[in-house]
């Protein structure tokens, strides 16, 4: 050894002389590397490493490139260390500083070196400091280390838990920076680590204690009530001694328990047998870390010189405004190093912490013997870390060779459910009721806002399943309803700490899932859909019912039951038929009117010539042929019109036959179809369509639409319409407020079977199943799964389907769909209304006709009366003219006989025929009034006067002696004959 040391010193002397000669050259490239080391051996090895580096051309860009080592001794006083760094290192223009620490001095002196060098952006490479505080780049801006921090042991813990299959743990840590850091590292890494693994390690209980504790009994009481029996311990050696002592008094270090501890706790002198701990490889090999740190620095400088120019570092600590930009760039190059050194694969993360560090898995045996049973090492082939443990060599607490289960299985579970027909029916207990009915289970609702408990009773598909499970796998339970009435959805929340790098947002769950994730419940028995988001945080049994997603809508009603008989033809066709009737009638009228061969005599006896077809008869003929009502009079007579009539009859036959066939199809066999064809319907995908669709907020269906990129446009439209519960959405579908409700097929098929007016549209999509929800790592998972599989095989699940989901209504609706309709008043009401309208129109028309006829008769009577009065007036005038003419002739005749005006004949006439000059006019004023009639009338009047003394004749008819005067006219009167010869005197 002495000879070897002498040779090394000789080489160093020769090398220093050579380098001093080279320094005289102007083009020499000098790079000073500082070292703050704990002892003389470390300083000597540092200088020796620098000397070897100068002979290694792989880390030099030119022959003139030379490294120099500048070292100082680590002082226990941090203030003195700061002055030494300024006076002996920074004054020498060092490009980086390698720092270690003494075991007794702690990390105060390395922190002082980091503060001072970081102020001038000079990189610092630690080889022994492992506190979490050095990971904070806000304080230690240019610090990186070739040893991993203590909290990186959480990565190895996760590998070990995965290896042994433990899914539920209790973490015990000190309430200092490193203790909180290891907890955060475990929780953050576990979320990413188990992305593709069905079972994830979850933390059931976190126990945080103050350092330098005297008793751990109080915390052990809480740990004994937990299910997990796997403990992860981070504590100092002194605190671990107290914890192991008290845990032994509680028998928590015996069989059935498993302990995983970090390096410091492994050093306690009372560590129980069977404890598994970690030991960092090369943890105390400062020389190896010195060499790796120097070569990492040389690699970074070489690459930096290749890419850019390095300026000289600060000269002294007096200039507080110095900011070495090349130092920042050099620190960046240092973090990107990945080389194979003497301590293994050397690489760094963004915080400058060592990654790819190897660990030995230590198993504590009797008398504190530490036996390595595995390694956590770097696999160069896969470029990742791997864990290898020899299980056959392990001894567990209680000196057991068999791995403990790591969990205490409870037999009384807290079960949660939610109201979702037909799986769970909920009924509120009335004031008169004390307990639920025989087929019901008490399921109180705990109001989280005011702490009030409301009494409810539950029954249904899932309640029967829960009863069967409890009997089959032997557990008791308390059932309760979801506190917020929801299945649960996640909310993204940021969780960042100043001492840790920023982590991605974490998911916080609400509803049933939140109760299970936060371990406030043991099991969920409800129609809980299995999906990836939920399976990431809770356990699922095998599905007890397979289902998918479908669309519920209300069956489209016919346009109008009153006009059902019009459905066989479209509106356009009906209009064309109506137009055709009147066009054909008009053409028939024109053909029959203007045809030269259309008018002929019916017989030789009848000389009346047949009239042409008028327009009214033509319209009647066209309607009669179309409606097959029979044609009476008013048929076309011309040959051309009759040809058109035959064509029209053929048209009417085809129209009537087509109408009859389609009427049977529409009113007897036709069923209303769904409006939508399924999830791929263009009206659902097109956000511009006026079609409202929705689902339930935060449900599995809502999560499904979030995952599907092709449904993103549709989801954005749905999101504004989503409901809080399925019941509200189904009621709105029935009322027509919501056109499409997207939900689980089991529930919607139940609603459609209960109400035949509802129908599910399209094929199922997003197929999944309903499962029993349990906590991560629950010991009941396998038992529940096996029981459900047995229920499927035995037909129990099918019996539940028939009893609760279908109720026999599905068959009724299906039969109703397949059998033809029976025409009733609802279908044919329009026809009866049409007939009633025809009757009403006919009655209205006859009333109008009667009124019109009466008006015409009155008008005719008035005309006849006026005509008769005019005739009478004309007759009277003519008769008066005749009388006057006769009298004039008589007077002329009398004048001729006697020139005197007062002749005897005139006097006689005046005496005997006094009425001739009266006011009543001549006796022959009425037509046909002959002499005999006048004589008979006068006799009758005389007889009446005799027998009726009370009736007095007018004065002119009586003489003074009241004797009747002879009213009979003379046989020969001058008014009626021209023979007046007997009157001549």
UniProtKB/TrEMBL annotation:
InterPro entries: ANF_lig-bd_rcpt, CaM-bd_C0_NMDA_rcpt_NR1, Glu/Gly-bd, Iono_Glu_rcpt_met, Ionotropic_Glu_rcpt, Iontro_rcpt_C, NMDA1-like_ligand-bd, NMDA1-like_N
Pfam families: ANF_receptor (PF01094), CaM_bdg_C0 (PF10562), Lig_chan (PF00060), Lig_chan-Glu_bd (PF10613)
One Gene Ontology MF term: signaling receptor activity
Disulfide bonds: 756-813
Presence of the UniProt keyword Membrane in the record: yes
The entry's keywords: Calcium, Cell membrane, Disulfide bond, Glycoprotein, Ion channel, Ion transport, Ligand-gated ion channel, Magnesium, Membrane, Phosphoprotein, Postsynaptic cell membrane, Receptor, Signal, Synapse, Transmembrane, Transmembrane helix, Transport
All residue ranges annotated as the Ionotropic glutamate receptor L-glutamate and glycine-binding domain in the record: 444-518
Binding annotation for L-glutamate: 527, 529, 534, 700, 744
Subunit (UniProt): Forms a heteromeric NMDA channel with Nmdar2.
Protein name: Glutamate [NMDA] receptor subunit 1
Organism encoding this protein: Glossina morsitans morsitans
